[in-house]
Amino acid sequence: MPERSKVLYHFSEDPAITRFDPHVAATSDLTDAYVWALHPDKRYIYLFPRDCPRVTYYIEDTTAEDDRQRFFGNTGATKVVAIETGWLQRLRETVLYCYEFAPDSFESHDEGAGYWVSRHTVLPLRVEQVGDLLDALTATGAEVRVTPSLWPLYEAVVASTLGFSIVRFRNAAQRPAAKETT
């Protein structure tokens, strides 16, 4: 059972949400209506413009030693977030707000991703502007990478023993054509 946090988070570009009603997310395969929230340990996954595609990955207890070395051998970080070069300016310009919720009505939905859900209307405890998103990301201890294409990283991460979260990948740049070998 995941540790219950004192607060849960929801990130939005909208600064004026006064209540969160359960709904079926347009991007979800689930049919139940929920209010979604995030455990504070996973906030780095959502410190981005809403539609920004990203690959995030992290070390878990089950991560194989060769994957630890391959993905983290040259860094002190234990989690990495990567976006495409084409999203960097939007990351710099986006104003994001952090809503805090009391965890009372929430239950864990996906421990690895840090998702919590409530079937009840939730009123935020408070909301505040995040500020510079790159500063906020690095303050979480995440290593931030910017790359022309997320596809090679995506393929490597999903084939590994790392924990990962792939968000809004439908918005990623087109998969690069395979290079011809001679």
Would you mind describing this structure in some detail?
There is one protein chain. The chain is α+β, with helices and mostly antiparallel strands and about 180 residues long. It has one domain (about 10-170). The chain is about 15% helix and about 25% strand. The protein has helices at about 65-70, 90-95, 135-140, 150-160, and strands spanning about 10, 35-40, 55-60, 80-85, 95-100, 105-110, 115-120, 125-130, 145, 165. Strands 9-4-3-10 form a four-stranded mixed β-sheet, with helices on both faces. Strands 1-5-8 form a three-stranded antiparallel β-sheet, with no helix packed on it. A hairpin with a 4-residue loop joins β6 (about 105-110) and β7. The longest helix is centred in the middle third of the chain and has 8 residues, at about 65-70. The N and C termini lie far apart (about 50 Å). The model has no long low-confidence stretch (mean pLDDT about 95).
Topology summary:
Layout: E1 8-12, E2 35-38, E3 54-58, H1 65-72, E4 79-84, H2 88-93, E5 97-101, E6 107-110, E7 115-118, E8 126-129, H3 133-139, E9 143-147, H4 151-158, E10 163-167
Parallel strand pairs: 4-9
Antiparallel strand pairs: 1-5, 2-7, 3-4, 3-10, 5-8, 6-7
- Biggest sheet statistics: 4 strands, mixed
Number of domains: 1
The total beta strand count reads: 10
Q: Determine the oligomeric state from the structure.
A: single chain
Strand order, biggest sheet?
Answer: 9-4-3-10
Strand content: 25-35%
- Please write the string of helix (H) and strand (E) elements: EEEHEHEEEEHEHE
SSE class:
alpha+beta
Percentage of residues assigned to helices: 10-25%
